[in-house]
Write a structure and sequence with these properties.
This protein is of the alpha+beta class. The protein is built from 14 helices and 41 strands. Strands 2, 5, 6, 10, 11, 15, 16, 20 and 21 form a 9-stranded mixed beta sheet that branches. Strands 3, 4, 17, 18, 19, 22, 23 and 24 form an 8-stranded antiparallel beta sheet that branches. Strands 25-26-27-30-31-34-35-36 form an 8-stranded parallel barrel, surrounded by 4 helices. The longest helix has 24 residues, at 427-450. The two termini are 49 Å apart.
Length: 900
């Protein structure tokens, strides 16, 4: 789950919603994202290095002459636009934790309160005396406040009560927990959750822990500790209960002795909390041209509070290359790195906002700028600079202020949805996409002229144009792709454009995960797979995902150490190359499992911390993020969630990114990998993934963005839009260059099949409820992998229902990924039949799914008007009028095809 930590705490008080074809919005961007901004992106850096963390000392260049000129009556307004801005107002509050006795020293009360508005829930549990590890237990029934709901078998969720407002109008929310000190409870553990935003509040990155006996005081996440009150050293990086180095009987006696000698002490402790409330604001920009002096005056006005700095320059042509104009400049202007100017906007007289005026000589095509609110927060135009035309030859977008050619404007009229594009693309990349769009438009023309293809084919091409246009213009912000409801009235074959990007491959891929959690134990896994290459090919697999190839602290490969050492527990480098060569001969492409989020060190630093790396990439602690206390890195803060078992790599460092790109390119050339499976991509910004994929040009790439689904009182919510939105946001951050595992679909299949609730397999719009329902070409569907199944079994698919799951993903849109154990140990013949049906009917990642039944005990759908399927014990038969014939059936599933 995503968390926000205290000391201090930040929260963006704005729920992300799926939006469709909404007008362009300008959003906050930063290289070092503030904690209150989700999915922040660096400000474009191709012109003026405005995101550099280490600034050169600015040189004051403000002209003594005023930059504002009195325009004559002959002047005219050549440009005027009002841009909507999304700002953030910081609210400061506190979390109050109070422990106090009631009637006597036997009965006590713990009160947890919060002064900020929100739908607060206390997620809590207890630790019993003698427990080891960091796991919680549920408290006894008499300890649970009214309204509490058990969460599985380890926690309780209790809603906060809102207290009457104070005289100042402030609200306060709190939960009270009563307990008896004679119980066997050693500590109360909790975190806070704001259900309005889905964000969690922790203490120093961990759970709050209120100790009820003294020997727990050595934990670094303890609250309420008084100096000298308890033994032990605060701040230890451990979540384990500290045990004396004595035998069990002596330890029990010591605990009892401590409890007697040191009675429970009350306390009241406040923790700062900050919440960012999204506010709407406006930016007004106008250009006036003076015919007598031939000068242009750019006037900028905004209602944003506080100091606003404009980081600006000009362009001589439409190439958007920044240059610095000649003086005079407005007051409060400095030169930045000889690449741009920075001007502090002047405050309005009423104090509500600021303004600036910029006088420019003739000969410039445009005025370009971004706004800086503080060192970490910038405002730009949909991931690009604000581009204000100064000549009539530049065509401006009606809403966004972006510039493009007339031809591009016509292509953009297909109505692209908004997609998050978190970095500036090069002109060459945009040209490539535009070329693809033109080819697709040509395809539509040929389809119409021949009149041999269905409307579905035309709509499919238009959908790809939408996505490509969105990628080209970086306007697909914080939303989900839009897919048109299509009238499926014709029976012609649907032909999908081949290979749009590394996010899709050809669109007809079928992936085999070529290992399980135990595969390393033989020491010769690559050689064992050699014997199965021909069988994998005959089954119909087009892609295989191999395990991590590098030297690793853990035998499974997910704790990499020396990246260039490819002698692993699965085999040596030569065996790997031979396997890849055999797979290629069989027509199977190969994905390497790249663990980029973290890396194990080989040496300790001067403080005894493991953060110095060895091998060819002998990085020091600058390559480690700064906000993981376990490894004391000197890099920047993490751009994602930390993985605490190993040093998290700081991908914002240019030398790190260059080394990783060189290593990935080496793997492509030396081993022959065709693409990547990217491990734990929640740990770093998706824009870095885009950078790596553009450098290595893989045929196919998929990221593991694993996140918890939404539950209410222990039951899975029907609406999982927030969950799939987070996955789509990550794909957006990669600019669609990567797919992602459809964890949403797996979770919903779990509940649907396990509890006979097949109605869950249709969302509120009658579409598939996972990522496949929003962005099918980027959804990698699966029911099991080495983590969820195998011998780990972290989230095992409902037993005996695996073939229902495969009947679903192998007939639906998205790209199916099948687990090795199921292929070779359990369901080979049934899976082979389903793959044959998929390939025979040309079902692909963009196939159109029409759900015809989603009830308690049965789910049925028709795919591309060629395949019908049902899962569940309930009854369904397709209409006899369309000449359906049964293709296969099994335990609670059936598949039909159109007879030809």
């Amino acid at each position: 789950m995503s968390v926000v930590t205290t000391d201090p705490i930040f929260l963006l008080y704005h729920r992300r919603r799926a939006t469709f074809n909404s007008p362009p919005i300008f959003r906050l961007n930063s290289k070092n994202p503030p904690l209150f901004i989700q999915n922040c992106t660096p400000t474009p850096n191709r012109r003026a290095s405005i995101c550099s963390r280490h600034f050169c000392p600015p040189k004051a260049v403000s002209s003594s002459d005023t930059a504002v000129v009195e325009t004559s009556e002959s002047s005219s307004v050549t440009f005027s636009e009002t841009f909507p801005l999304k700002g953030a107002e910081k609210l400061e509050g506190k979390i109050t934790i109070r422990l106090e006795s009631e009637k006597d020293e036997e009965y006590w009360k713990l009160t947890v309160g919060c002064s900020l508005p929100g739908k607060w829930v206390l997620h809590w549990g207890v630790t019993y005396i003698g427990d080891t590890g960091s796991e919680w237990d549920q408290p006894p029934l008499d300890m649970r406040p009214p309204g509490s709901v058990p969460i599985k078998d380890y926690a309780i969720e209790t809603p906060f009560e809102r207290l009457p407002a104070s005289l100042e109008g402030d609200s306060f929310y709190e939960v009270k927990i009563d307990f008896n000190t004679n119980s066997s409870i050693a500590a109360i553990n909790f975190v806070l959750k704001d259900e309005e935003s889905g964000s969690w509040y922790q203490h120093r990155g961990r759970d709050f822990k209120v100790p009820l006996i003294d020997y727990l005081q050595g934990d670094g996440n303890v609250v309420g500790a008084q100096k000298g009150a308890w033994p032990g050293e605060l701040g230890q990086i451990s979540n384990l209960i500290i045990k004396p180095e004595v035998d069990d009987s002596e330890g029990d006696n010591l605990r009892e002795s401590n409890m007697e000698k040191r009675p429970l002490q009350g306390f009241c402790e406040d923790h700062s909390v900050f919440k960012e409330v999204v506010t709407d604001n406006l930016l007004n920009v106008s250009v006036r041209h003076d015919l007598e002096t031939s000068k242009n005056v750019v006037y900028i006005e905004t209602g944003l509070p506080g100091d606003v700095v404009i980081h600006w320059g000009v362009c001589r042509d439409e190439g958007k290359n920044w240059i610095i104009p000649a003086e005079p400049y407005p007051p409060e202007t400095i030169l930045f790195k000889n690449k741009a100017l920075r001007t502090l906007l002047q405050q309005k007289q009423d104090g509500c906002g600021s303004w600036g005026s910029f006088t420019l000589d003739k000969g410039f095509a445009a005025f370009v700028f971004v706004l800086k609110l503080n060192e970490n927060t910038w405002l730009n135009c949909n991931g690009d600079d604000f581009y204000i035309p100064l000549t009539s030859s530049v065509i401006t977008d009606e809403h966004s202020g972006l510039t493009h050619t007339k031809r591009e404007e016509q292509l953009a009229e297909v109505g692209s949805p908004m997609i998050s594009d978190d970095s500036s693309e090069s002109k060459e990349a945009k040209d490539d996409i535009i070329k693809e769009i033109r080819n697709l438009v040509t395809g539509i023309s040929s389809v119409k002229s021949r009149k041999t293809k269905s409307r579905e084919a035309q709509e499919s091409i238009l959908q790809e144009i939408e996505k490509l246009a969105a990628e080209a213009y970086s306007i697909f912000r914080s939303s989900t792709p839009t897919f048109t409801d299509i009238d499926q009235s014709e029976d012609e074959d649907l032909e999908t454009p081949v290979k749009i990007s590394s996010g899709t491959g050809s669109g007809y891929e079928i992936v085999c995960q070529g290992f399980n959690w135990e595969s390393h134990k033989s020491g010769k896994w690559y050689m064992e797979l050699q014997d199965k290459v021909s069988e994998l090919s005959s089954l119909g697999f087009t892609v295989i995902w191999l395990p991590p190839p590098t030297d690793s602290v853990s035998p499974e490969g997910y704790m990499p150490r020396d990246l260039y050492n490819l002698n692993s527990r699965y085999g040596n480098m030569d065996q790997l190359k031979a396997l890849v060569k055999s797979l290629h001969k069989a027509g199977i492409r190969v994905l390497g499992d790249a663990v980029l989020n973290h890396r194990c060190a080989e040496y300790k630093n001067q403080n005894g911390v493991w953060n110095i790396f060895g091998g060819r990439l002998n990085w020091d602690d600058r390559a480690v993020v700064a906000d993981d206390p376990h490894f004391q890195g000197r890099g920047n803060k993490s751009s994602g969630d930390n993985f605490h078992a190993a040093p998290n790599i700081d991908h914002s460092q240019e030398f790190v990114r260059n080394d990783i790109k060189e290593w990935l390119c080496w793997l492509r050339e030396e081993i022959g990998y065709d693409g990547w499976r990217l491990d734990f991509v929640r740990g770093f910004w998706g824009g870095y993934v885009k950078d790596y994929l553009e450098a290595t040009e893989p045929y196919f790439a998929v990221g593991e963005f694993w996140d918890s689904l939404s539950y209410t009182y222990g039951e899975m919510d029907h609406n999982q839009d927030a969950h799939r939105q987070r996955i789509v946001d990550w794909i957006n951050a990669t600019n669609g260059t990567a797919s992602a595992f459809d964890v949403t679909t797996k979770g919903i299949l779990h509940s649907a099949l396990e509890k006979c609730e097949y109605w869950r397999l249709s969302d509120e719009k009658g579409k598939p409820p996972g990522v496949m329902g929003w962005w099918p070409s980027r959804a990698i569907t699966f029911i099991e992998n080495h983590d969820t199944g195998s011998t780990q079994g972290h989230w095992r698919f409902p037993g005996g229902k695996e073939m229902q799951g495969y009947a679903y993903i192998l007939t639906h849109c998205g790209t199916p990924s099948l687990f090795y154990d199921h292929i070779f140990f359990e369901y080979k013949s049934q899976i082979s039949t389903l793959i044959s049906i998929r390939k025979r009917n040309k079902i692909n990642c963009r196939s159109i799914v029409k759900i015809v039944k989603a009830e308690r005990d049965v789910y049925a759908a028709i795919i591309d008007e060629k395949v019908a399927m049902k899962i569940g014990p309930g009854h369904y038969e397709p209409s006899n009028g369309q000449n359906w014939s049964l293709a296969t059936e099994g335990n609670d599933y059936k598949i039909w095809e159109i007879s030809r």
